[in-house]
User: Fold this.
Amino acid sequence: MMRYCFETEEHEVFRKTVQKFLQKHAAPYIDTWEKEKRVPLAFWHTLGEMGYLCPQVAEKYGGLGLDFRYNIVIAEELERVASSLIGIGLHNDVVVPYIEAFGTDAQKKRWLPKCVTGEIITAIAMTEPSTGSDLAAIQTVAKKEGEYYIVNGQKTFITNGIHSNAVIVVVKTDANAGHKGISLLVVEEGTEGFTRGRQLEKVGLHAQDTAELYFEDCRVPVGNLLGEEGQGFYYLMNKLQQERLVAALGAQMSAEDMFDTTLEYVKTRTAFGKPIGTFQNTQFKMAEMATQIELGKSFLESLLEAHMAGKDIVTKVSMAKYWITENARQMAAQCMQLHGGYGYMEEYKIARRYRDIPVASIYAGTNEIMKTIIAKNIGL
Assistant:
């Protein structure tokens, strides 16, 4: 059955194809990738060969020109395998759309075809060691000198930080103009003055390469300015709706997978001579989680449909990002509890889910920021 009312038979067939591909090329290797702390580049290239990277990119730039529903399918099925594959979704649904929306034709011809094949892996560098949610307070500066911007600063917690070879860097081109002085520069691998720091050791998402990035008198060609100078903050605000919607989408699929895994476990695990799923406490807990999942899915479906129709749904997306990620975090603890001691063992998938899901309430804007947006937009 189709997951959403707006899916067509073509999307359902596509989903089955993606599932089959991931069961062959990702699921058997995810534990190895977790230990190696990296999703191999070869997997990225295989995704590109299959058309699973940036399917929305126009055909004139090497893409398939597909609608956002295909991105939804890919994002969900990647999450179904493991949250550590989130870097692929970041590339598809968050970073590349900046180039599509704000890049010049020449920039699109230069970068997009390789984004589709996996030759270019993208990242976006906003967060700094002393600046998280307050983008207007970033310290990374870019001073224009002739045909170059001279960039100095540091970024941290950068998803795809190791693999990426094209990074959209949020900089201050006017240090005295607050958020009106923010611009976006695409910094490519090999650029003089651009170096990577260590790959960061995280509580979860072990196969996802998160890193620090350094810019020391980094010479970025003026032609790598994305959009107009001083408009970066507005570009970021424009694209955050989709980024937060995708974050909610991932958390929802994670919750559903945890539920399915736990449902199967409580049906087969016995205690006191019968399956633990026959105990009233277990039944009540599973019933509560099933209800929460359906509520989340229905809300998310309405938002996805509105987003694809081009509507401004910032408030509701903030609600979804906050509520669905919090729900998934609570479910992870509950599902682990229902697994008993086995839930604490690495060989059980719920252990990985338990480690991976908490960060969903932090990235794409913390849930505290989501509540601030909601409060402001309801008139407080």
